[in-house]
């Protein structure tokens, strides 16, 4: 294993082509896009401001161990076989998950088909199912870090997995062998990670207390160069790449847009309260139909026109607490929150100034458990917070949604079949990071520093 300099900047030692290996590629390839990992609940575990959701739930589960041959099972599971990425499961005619090169949640022409009375009748039995999904197999559990894993990113071109942790380290894994290829100690909690087109973007925090700064390291794996960007005040919660621009959002209530000038990234725009933006920490965002949709710690959704940097619409109190995840499914937006609910919003067609998203959700899932739209918690304890969500196709091309919560683990739903609950992924602790191999596998990172790889089967 090669060693690297640990100061978060400068050149790597041991590899003339740079430390983190990748698939090469150029950052300026036209209009690639990708969504990076986020803290997945970094503020709800006692480590950051607020300190929510720490305590008795933290020790649940966490059994390790591997079952079956990792490499054989992974290959047979559909990644390189029929129904895998190139055979149509991911880029099939329905286009449900077409993301232009990296996962971006739900896309395509599907419409939400489980609204109203049907959803109300199903809601109770769909809150929790302790049985494992019938078509998933746990291939491997890896003790990847010494502290909670906060973010994951998978590169399909090289079959490499990148992980970041509270232990301050980022690691690159060979998904065939399950072994570490490279690692670097950034000496600060890693909060978001994204690999796309030969570039690795890593967000981490430096300093203590009120003097914390969010830093972004940009690793050009093809050229072997690294740039350190002082990005935000406080934590950076998510990274995203779209239309040759890098987006970051953070604790300082701002969204920053970065672009290339020469060989370096520079800040092009700051989307903050002066432009009608958020006044509370921004925890999640997504580019949807050309608009930037963002969610903050008060449960407010905002919709931006990225071309002008203006906020075109605000939906206050969309949730009762932090909006932790935003995804797209067809003509709908899915938002998950620490108030325990997932809500479905419909895009207007065509979009109108100030009305890109219809102001009321067309559906809401799971009980509020103490929170409601526009309300705060009732007495009786904290809700079953949604920490993160991830959309991916299974080996048959069906749209699957993995939802990680603080109390009940990671549940898997078939969205194409009206949010049918398939079961709960076994043998994992509290999960704050999810990524996927389209049509082949779901990869989880938990609070015990373990990576769990589940393969689609059947």
From TrEMBL:
Sequence ranges of the WD repeats: 142-183, 229-261, 275-314, 330-349
Key words of the record: Repeat, WD repeat
Annotated InterPro entries: WD40/YVTN_repeat-like_dom_sf, WD40_PAC1, WD40_repeat_CS, WD40_repeat_dom_sf, WD40_rpt, WDR86-like
Region feature (Disordered): 1-72, 95-135
Positions with biased composition (Gly residues): 7-25, 37-72
Keyword Repeat part of the UniProt annotation: yes
Protein name per UniProt: Uncharacterized protein
């Amino acid at each position: 294993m090669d060693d690297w300099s640990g100061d978060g900047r400068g050149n790597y030692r041991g590899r003339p082509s740079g430390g983190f290996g990748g698939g090469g590629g150029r950052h300026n390839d036209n209009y690639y896009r990708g969504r990076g990992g986020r803290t997945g609940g970094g503020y709800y575990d006692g480590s950051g401001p607020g300190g929510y959701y720490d305590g008795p739930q933290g020790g649940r589960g966490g059994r390790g161990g591997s079952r079956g041959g990792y490499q054989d099972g992974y290959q047979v599971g559909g990644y390189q076989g029929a129904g895998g990425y190139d055979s149509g499961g991911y880029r099939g005619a329905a286009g449900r998950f077409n993301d232009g090169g990296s996962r971006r949640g739900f896309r395509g022409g599907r419409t939400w088909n489980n609204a109203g009375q049907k959803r109300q009748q199903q809601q109770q039995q769909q809150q929790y199912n302790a049985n494992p999904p019938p078509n998933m197999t746990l291939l491997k559990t890896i003790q990847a870090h010494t502290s909670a894993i906060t973010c994951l990113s998978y590169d399909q071109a090289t079959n490499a997995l990148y992980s970041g942790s509270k232990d301050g380290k980022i690691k690159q894994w060979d998904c065939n062998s399950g072994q570490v290829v490279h690692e670097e100690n950034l000496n600060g909690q890693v909060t978001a990670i994204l690999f796309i087109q030969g570039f690795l973007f890593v967000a981490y925090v430096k300093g203590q207390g009120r003097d914390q700064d969010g830093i972004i390291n940009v690793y050009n794996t093809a050229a072997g160069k690294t740039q350190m960007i002082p990005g935000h005040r406080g934590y950076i919660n998510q990274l995203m790449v779209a239309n040759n621009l890098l987006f970051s959002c953070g604790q300082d209530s701002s969204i920053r847009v970065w672009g290339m000038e020469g060989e370096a990234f520079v800040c092009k725009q700051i989307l903050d309260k002066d432009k009608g933006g958020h006044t509370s920490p921004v925890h999640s965002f997504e580019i949807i139909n050309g608009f930037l949709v963002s969610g903050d710690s008060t449960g407010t959704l905002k919709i931006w026109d990225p071309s002008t940097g203006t906020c075109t619409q605000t939906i206050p109190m969309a949730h009762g607490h932090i909006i932790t995840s935003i995804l797209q499914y067809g003509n709908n937006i899915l938002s998950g929150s620490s108030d325990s609910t997932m809500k479905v919003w419909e895009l207007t067609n065509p979009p109108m100034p100030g009305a890109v998203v219809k102001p009321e959700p067309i559906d809401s899932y799971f009980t509020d458990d103490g929170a409601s739209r526009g309300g705060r918690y009732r007495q009786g304890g904290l809700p079953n917070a949604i920490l993160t969500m991830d959309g991916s196709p299974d080996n048959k091309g069906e749209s699957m949604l993995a939802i990680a919560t603080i109390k009940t683990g990671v549940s898997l739903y078939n969205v194409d079949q009206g949010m049918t609950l398939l079961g709960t992924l076994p043998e994992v602790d509290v999960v704050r990071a999810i990524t996927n191999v389209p049509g082949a596998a779901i990869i989880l990172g938990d609070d015990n520093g373990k990576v769990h790889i589940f393969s689609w089967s059947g």
